[in-house]
Design a protein that fits this description.
single chain; mainly alpha; Butyryl-CoA Dehydrogenase, subunit A, domain 3; Helix Hairpins; Neurolysin, domain 3; 4 domains; 23 helices; binds zinc ion
Length: about 600
């Protein structure tokens, strides 16, 4: 299909649009569920102060909570998905606004629950579970909650903390308002004098341009714009880090890092192993960047030369029918049931395939416990789109297996494991294409695709993770941060990670100031651990076959019924050891070796 003639929503063929009618056949049905949630909410208040009354009251509460959750999820997810399919549709915009308001109401009504459960005398929940068999289903829910217990403070202090929570969000909301609404970058001219607007949304595309003048100017425009506000952004970020340190100390954690990892029950070793293993493999990244410089024929490799495709993009137009066939083929190693389910996703309209007027950009997988696990795509016939398709199928099939096997309370999964299921599918697709592709140019293209993923998902995210560890450590020691110090730390890390081949531009020192994830501390390392775990598992599946597949599919069925590290251990990777990270780098080295060879043969 042609990309310059965007269809309107009703011009897109029915079988290429998701079947949300399966969730709600009519608007009245949605309204009925909306009303049902509103009617259930007053019942919540009846349980306030009574959760410790006895096992049967607690069970009654858990069931009411589930009933609200199940219905509310459908109301919320449906309204948002309908809105995303055409953001210009004011009817669905209205539904999604109402669903968001309902979300706020639900969360405020339920806010007493966890503090009340945590305030029960020691051993109460355990005793209730002994007394009442049906309550044992929630063992993991209670275990996770009780882990926080030693970090819960007196009711008076908790009340104060709850009251300042909104104020504590100031650094993050100021940053987001500034970067999304106020900050303007000067537009730039390419080498032929054409004008280009610069903003965060367009930045990546501009940096992929073959026109080096344009790349350099776009980079300097964007990074320079942040640089103009570096003192304000340094103060904002400093306060964000101070906030994290304050909460960690107040809640009696040894460090901010330990506090951040506690939710996933991940030890600090996992984080440190990741950083160490990346350090050990930096020489390979340096070799890759040297190669990039050579292939691009540059006298100096600047940061703005990192994103331009190294190999002339080979003409690979892949219409949807072919994209589906490639996906089905690539996922064959996961066995018949998996592939049949992917076929169902295509046949039973779990997928909203093409862009249309007003449709949100990007791709995702979403659904509820009772709905199909839908896929939202903006497929435009490129190879990247096929990778996105198998990626989102990975999430959807993870949901499918989990919902089928787990009760509602464990029918979700954390981000720590989510990206394993999606990235593993990308691995399988790439490996298959590399096994079969004989055309040298296409092979080179696929290899660089993979190496660039390592650069951006493994090395870069780990560099971010190390930055966060350093700056939080400094504040914990009582050292204040400012823009100069942040820039120095950031530049040192860039020089360490990218090596002597990187020609450092002055503007690079401002990049810390533009990373939104830094306001969600110690989050990005999960991209790197997930990436490594997926690479290790894909390798096991290809080398070991059936036993590895069985372990992996079993992992998909587990939802959140176990902690992330236990889930991954069951699948075959022990993330408490640096081994899987090292294993995943072996793939990087193999692919780099081959690319080097192909380039030298030319
Ligand atoms: Zn994903």
């Amino acid at each position: 299909m042609s990309t310059n003639k965007l269809l309107t929503r009703d011009q897109v063929a029915e079988h290429e649009k998701w079947n949300l009618e399966a969730m709600y056949a009519t608007n009245d049905a949605w309204e009925a569920d909306f009303k049902k949630v509103q009617e259930l909410l007053p019942e919540v208040a009846n349980f306030r102060g009574r959760l410790g009354e006895g096992a049967s009251t607690l069970l009654e509460w858990m069931r009411l909570n589930e009933k609200i959750g199940l219905t509310f999820d459908n109301v919320f997810v449906y309204a948002h998905m309908r809105y995303h399919q055409n953001t210009g549709d004011s009817f669905y915009q209205g539904l999604s606004d109402r669903a968001s308001m309902l979300a706020a109401e639900v969360s405020s009504e339920l806010s007493f629950v966890n503090p009340e459960l945590l305030g029960l005398p020691d051993g109460t929940l355990e005793r209730f579970m002994e007394e009442n068999e049906d309550l044992r289903l929630y063992k993991m829910v209670f275990t996770r909650l009780l882990r926080e217990k030693e970090h819960v403070l007196t009711p008076e202090v908790e009340e104060v903390l709850a009251k300042v929570a909104e104020i504590a969000e100031a650094p993050g909301s100021i940053f987001s308002m500034f970067s999304n609404a106020d900050l303007k970058m000067p537009s730039v001219q390419d080498s032929e004098g054409n004008e280009h607007e610069v903003n965060e949304g367009r930045y990546r595309n501009l940096l992929e341009s073959k026109d080096r003048v344009l790349r350099e100017r776009a980079f300097k425009s964007l990074f320079g714009a942040y640089g103009q506000f570096r003192n304000m952004l340094g103060a904002t970020y400093n306060n964000n880090v101070k906030k994290n340190v304050f909460y960690a100390k107040t809640r009696h954690y040894n460090t901010t890092l330990e506090a951040a990892l506690s939710g996933d029950n991940v030890s600090v070793d996992v984080y440190n192993n990741l950083i160490q293993a990346n350090h050990d493999n930096l020489p390979h990244l340096h070799r890759y960047l040297e190669l990039r410089k050579k292939v691009l024929g540059l006298d100096e490799l600047h940061y703005y030369d990192f994103f331009v495709p190294m190999v002339e993009s080979v003409d690979m137009t892949i219409p949807w029918e072919q994209g589906k066939a490639m996906s089905l083929d690539a996922l064959q190693p996961l066995g018949e049931e998996y592939v049949t389910t992917v076929q169902r996703a295509f046949d039973e309209r779990w997928v909203d395939v093409f862009p249309n007027v007003g449709k949100r950009t990007g791709a995702y997988s979403w659904g509820t416990y009772t709905s199909d696990p839908y896929l939202f795509l903006n497929y435009t016939d490129t190879l990247d789109d096929v990778f996105t398709t198998v990626h989102e199928l990975g999430h959807s099939l993870h949901s499918y297996y989990t919902m089928k096997s787990q009760p509602f309370v464990y029918g979700n999964y954390t981000i720590f494991v989510a990206e394993v299921a999606s990235t593993l599918n990308e691995n399988l697709l790439l490996s298959k294409m590399l096994r079969e592709e004989t055309d040298k140019k296409k092979r080179m293209y696929l290899l660089t695709h993979s190496l660039d993923q390592y650069r951006s998902t493994m090395f870069r995210q780990t560099m971010f993770a190390e930055f966060e560890k350093i700056v939080h450590g400094l504040v914990e020691e009582g050292q204040p941060l400012n823009a100069d110090l942040l820039s120095q730390i950031y530049l040192d890390l860039n020089i360490k990670y990218y090596g002597p081949v990187l020609k450092v531009d002055d503007e690079l020192k401002n990049e810390w100031a533009r990373i939104p994830h830094f306001y969600d501390a110690f989050y990005v390392y999960k991209y790197a651990t997930g990436f490594a775990a997926a690479a290790a598992l894909a390798r096991q599946i290809q080398e070991e076959g059936a036993p590895a597949v069985e372990r992996y599919l079993n992992f998909l069925t587990k939802g959140s019924s176990e902690d992330p590290l236990d889930l991954l251990k069951g699948a075959g990777v022990d993330m408490s050891s640096p081994q899987p990270i090292h294993d995943s780098f072996k793939v990087f080295v193999e692919r780099l070796d081959e690319l080097e060879k192909l380039i030298n043969e030319q």
